[in-house]
């Protein structure tokens, strides 16, 4: 496994363990750096902590004393730790650099690096890029928010191997010199304001993905998103656009085909993924992989077989002419509105979940294709009211996912889409949106 060379810091504080902190601490220790670990919740007797201690790490758990910053010249923090944390705040006051492990991964990886960020679609786009490169028989690994920790993956990659990294705003905010060869910015919406405090702060964190790029690099961006376009004058890299609205210098689509510049890639009708959002993700992926010479054949192979990332408008199966889709990741109205716009067929919508005080009136303009609804969870009545306002013909309230799927199937006919897209978080009935999605797919497969 490769270690950091010519690392400019000698005494590093790793703040917060979990996967990223543990991986960063091991990398730093193996690279000959003096490491102190501070975690409020970690158990000092646990195996991961003891393993780091046996390598020579100074372990401080159970509290955040400011003394952990003594003699420290770099802080590597868990991305989820806010900058209001007393240790982070004090480090900034002392002018100690504060980064996330993504910075270390970028320093260590020697081959091509593709970084993907955006408010929506990161995981699907990252997966598509990874699968397209793999289908072209080129060495590739995936890291970041999807898969393994970046600095851990980078320890085993080769100079010829492309690392594809999904990156959150939390991770990017903690970068100083991180520089992907190809940076992909999918879209910018309002999100994570509890962490970033203002929309501008959030957008600026995302924009860090291209901040250190030079003329030798490539910036792939959504030309349909004006919030991204305002950054273009400050981008030094070669700009490659993607658009579902017009022909651009990059990847684009008309009613029948997708293109890269003037080169037709394939027919849209042959693509397995559905929906406007996924078409944007596909075009972003095409623009990224064409930049490293991936063949059209490999792109087509993936797009004609890829059913989607689990729980993200994922095609489950077809039964007796009904088409089942699992979009359990749709934990807000915006995501569900995208899902509803993805189909031309009549839809039976399964929705509901945690009550966060949200009104669902803004969902009604997107429900013109919804012929029936099955609602559940704390928001069942509110979603039922929204359905009535939209003129939905049949609405049923149920208590569990098995009943939801049965009811949806009963009210459906051939060619209908049965769509789980809850518009709510899952925590009223399920531990995670993944658990909710698994319950849906299991119930679908139990249908006769």
Automatic annotation (TrEMBL):
Q: What is its main location?
A: cytoplasm
Quote the InterPro entries the UniProt record gives. Answer: Mur-like_cat_sf, Mur_ligase_C, Mur_ligase_C_dom_sf, Mur_ligase_cen, MurD
List GO molecular-function terms, semicolon-separated: ATP binding; UDP-N-acetylmuramoylalanine-D-glutamate ligase activity
Q: Which SUPFAM superfamilies match?
A: MurCD N-terminal domain, MurD-like peptide ligases, catalytic domain, MurD-like peptide ligases, peptide-binding domain
Quick one: which pathway? Answer: Cell wall biogenesis; peptidoglycan biosynthesis
Every copy of the Mur ligase C-terminal domain together lies at 311-424
**Origin superkingdom:** Bacteria
- Its EC top class is ligase
Name one process (GO BP) from the record: peptidoglycan biosynthetic process
Q: Where in the cell is it found?
A: Cytoplasm
Q: Which residues bind ATP?
A: 118-124
What keywords were assigned to this record?
ATP-binding, Cell cycle, Cell division, Cell shape, Cell wall biogenesis/degradation, Cytoplasm, Ligase, Nucleotide-binding, Peptidoglycan synthesis
Quote the EC number. 6.3.2.9
Q: Which GO terms describe its cellular component?
A: cytoplasm
* Reactions catalysed according to its record: UDP-N-acetyl-alpha-D-muramoyl-L-alanine + D-glutamate + ATP = UDP-N-acetyl-alpha-D-muramoyl-L-alanyl-D-glutamate + ADP + phosphate + H(+)
Q: Where is the Mur ligase central domain?
A: 116-289
Sorted alphabetically, which Pfam families does this protein's record hold?
Answer: Mur_ligase_C, Mur_ligase_M, MurD-like_N
| HAMAP family, per database record | MurD
* Stored PANTHER family: UDP-N-ACETYLMURAMOYLALANINE--D-GLUTAMATE LIGASE (PTHR43692)
- Relate the protein's function as given in its record: Cell wall formation. Catalyzes the addition of glutamate to the nucleotide precursor UDP-N-acetylmuramoyl-L-alanine (UMA).
Entry's family note: Belongs to the MurCDEF family.
Name under which the protein is recorded: UDP-N-acetylmuramoylalanine--D-glutamate ligase
Protein source organism: Halobacillus yeomjeoni
């Amino acid at each position: 496994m490769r270690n950091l060379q010519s690392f400019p810091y000698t005494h590093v504080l790793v703040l917060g363990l979990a996967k990223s902190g543990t991986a960063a601490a091991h990398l730093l220790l193996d690279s000959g750096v003096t490491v102190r670990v501070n975690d409020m919740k970690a158990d000092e007797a646990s195996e991961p902590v003891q393993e780091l201690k046996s390598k020579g790490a100074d372990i401080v758990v159970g509290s955040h004393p400011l003394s952990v910053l003594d003699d420290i010249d770099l802080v590597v923090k868990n991305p989820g730790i806010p900058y209001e944390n007393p240790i982070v705040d004090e480090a900034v006051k002392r002018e100690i650099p504060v980064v996330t492990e993504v910075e270390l991964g970028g320093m260590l990886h020697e081959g091509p690096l593709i970084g993907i960020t955006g408010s929506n679609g990161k995981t699907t786009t990252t997966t598509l890029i990874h699968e397209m490169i793999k289908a072209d028989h080129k060495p590739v690994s995936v890291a970041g928010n999807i898969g393994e920790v970046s600095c851990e993956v980078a320890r085993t990659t080769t100079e010829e191997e492309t690392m594809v990294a999904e990156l959150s705003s939390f991770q990017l905010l903690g970068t100083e010199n991180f520089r992907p060869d190809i940076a992909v910015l999918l879209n910018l919406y309002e999100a994570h304001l509890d962490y970033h405090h203002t929309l501008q702060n959030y957008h600026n964190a995302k924009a860090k993905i291209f901040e250190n790029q030079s003329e030798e690099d490539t910036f792939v961006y959504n030309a349909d998103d004006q919030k991204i376009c305002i950054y273009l004058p400050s981008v030094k890299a070669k700009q490659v656009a993607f658009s579902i609205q017009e022909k651009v210098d990059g990847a684009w689509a008309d009613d029948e085909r997708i293109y890269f510049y003037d080169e037709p890639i394939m027919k849209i009708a042959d693509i397995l993924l559905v929906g406007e959002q996924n078409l944007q993700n596909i075009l972003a992926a095409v623009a990224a992989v064409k930049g490293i010479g991936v063949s059209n054949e490999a792109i087509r192979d993936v797009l004609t077989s890829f059913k989607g990332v689990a729980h993200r408008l994922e095609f489950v199966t077809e039964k007796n002419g009904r088409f089942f889709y699992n979009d359990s990741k749709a934990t807000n109205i915006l995501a569900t509105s995208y899902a509803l716009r993805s189909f031309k067929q009549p839809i039976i919508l399964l929705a509901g979940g945690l009550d966060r005080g949200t009104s669902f009136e803004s969902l009604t303009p997107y429900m013109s294709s919804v012929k029936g609804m099955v609602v559940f969870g704390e928001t069942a009545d509110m979603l039922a009211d929204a359905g009535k306002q939209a003129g939905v013909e049949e609405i049923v309230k149920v208590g569990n996912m098995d009943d939801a799927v049965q009811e949806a199937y009963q009210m459906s006919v051939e060619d209908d889409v049965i769509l789980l897209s809850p518009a709510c978080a899952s925590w009223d009935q399920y531990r995670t949106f993944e658990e909710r999605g698994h319950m849906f797919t299991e119930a679908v497969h139990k249908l006769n």
